[in-house]
Design goal:
This protein has three helices and nine strands, in the order H-H-H-E-E-E-E-E-E-E-E-E. By secondary structure, the chain is an alpha+beta fold. The protein has one domain: Peptide methionine sulfoxide reductase (Metal Binding Protein, Guanine Nucleotide Exchange Factor, Chain A, Beta Complex). Strands 3-4-8-7-6-5 form a six-stranded antiparallel sheet, with no helix packed on it. Strands 2-1-9 form a three-stranded antiparallel sheet, with no helix packed on it. The longest helix is centred in the N-terminal third of the chain and has 16 residues.
Length: 158
């Protein structure tokens, strides 16, 4: 392989990392769909968040004001992710939780926007949910800062 080829492939790899490419995720999850299948299942804004790792505008989610008992599930595959017992107002403009349900999410390093963060995704379908930070309340000290478009709320049964 010559120097030009090496530089070309390195450039394509850098572009993929910088844009948050989901390359390499296909087939890594229990639930996989084609792009067309995801687009048919999700609203355009949900597709942009869950499948393209976009972020919804702050203070735009109705889930910010959701205070009933229940469970927040993945909007892509309905996997239970967060209990309403762990939801709190972080003041960030996104639904926030200090803990996650067991075996619900996966995490990966996110180096976009010239910083390092920890991305949170649904462990079953790979849908991008948001990011986790270490500035949350006790008992975990974590802040799972989630996109409301990536979640559905299921009220507890009466």
């Amino acid at each position: 392989m010559d120097r030009r080829s090496i530089l070309k492939y390195a450039g394509f790899s850098a572009i993929g990392l910088a844009t948050g490419s989901r390359a390499g995720f296909a087939g890594d999850f229990e639930i996989t769909k084609t792009e067309a299948e995801w687009k048919a299942l999700l609203a355009p804004a949900q597709f942009a968040v869950l499948r393209e790792e976009n972020t919804e505008p702050p203070n735009s989610s109705p889930l910010l004001d959701e205070h009933r008992q229940g469970t927040f599930t993945c909007a892509g595959c309905d996997l239970p992710l967060y209990s309403s017992d762990t939801k709190y107002d972080s003041g960030t403009g996104w639904p926030s939780f200090y803990d996650v349900l067991p075996d619900a999410v996966g995490k990966k390093e996110d180096n976009t926007f010239f910083t390092t963060r920890t991305e949170v995704h649904c462990r079953r379908c790979g849908g991008h949910l948001g990011h986790v930070f270490d500035d949350g309340p006790p008992p975990t000290g974590l802040r799972y800062c989630m996109n409301g478009l990536a979640l559905k709320f299921v009220p507890a049964s009466a």
